[in-house]
């Protein structure tokens, strides 16, 4: 009789164990926190430095005693640097924005015109700037983007001569367009580093030589290619909130 009662009790205990376990609340495991996905939307400022390669194609517009027509290509290179400011708007993995640059191009140089007799073509250093639109795709912490818009350069160009009796007239401010792109990488929610290539087609400005015989204009068509590195600081920033559970 005692053995029967012991057997019944053991069976009841075995059956009751899963029932009690089922009645106990389950404790959800805590997920691992994901890598932060940075928010690119907001205003930013930055600084950059790099190198520039310029070509000023100088062509007389009237016969000046040398070969006509002709062109003299003045090629120079130097450093550029300055600041940037802009605004980004991110939607999903895409970004659009506007950006402005202002800086200095040290691309001055000169070249004698072999077909012009005594003429020497000169290009001076100057300020440059641009106002562009920007669009890109975000991969993790990286942004691959393209940009383009209006640009100017106020370095003056002119043509000089060793002949007496001539007055030299400089070009005005160059104004044209720019296009290019780059790669920007988030170092933290606020800071990012970039490398950028830009092509500038600054348009054509006329210089002149004036004497008693008249005015001799020289068209200067200026293009510049640049590569620069920069560091940006974003004001409106914060990582995307995590959905990871919280344990108590």
Structural features, described:
The chain contains one helix and twelve strands; from the N terminus they run αββββββββββββ. The chain is mainly β and 248 residues long. The chain has one domain: Beta Barrel (Porin). The chain has an eight-stranded antiparallel beta barrel. The protein is elongated, with a radius of gyration of 34 Å.
Summarize the structure.
The protein is mainly beta. The protein is built from 1 helix and 12 strands, in the order αββββββββββββ. The chain has a single domain (42-234), classed as Porin (Beta Barrel).
What are the main properties of this structure?
single chain; 248 residues; mainly beta; Porin; eight-stranded antiparallel β-barrel; 1 helix; 60% strand; disordered N terminus
Strands ordered across the widest β-sheet:
1-2-3-6-7-10-11-12
Query: From the alpha-carbon coordinates, what is the Rg to the nearest angstrom?
Result: 34 Å
Uncertain segments are 1-24, 32-36
Count of runs of 4 or more consecutive helical residues: 1
Helix/strand order:
HEEEEEEEEEEEE
Beta-strand fraction estimate: over 45%
Distance, first to last CA: 50 Å
For the sheet with most strands, the description reads: 8 strands, antiparallel, barrel
CATH-derived topology: Porin
Mean pLDDT: 87
Structural class by sheet pairing and helices: mainly beta
The assigned CATH architecture is Beta Barrel
**What is the helix content?**
under 10%
Query: How many β-strand runs?
Result: 12
- The backbone outline, from C-alpha atoms, is elongated
CATH C-level class:
Mainly Beta
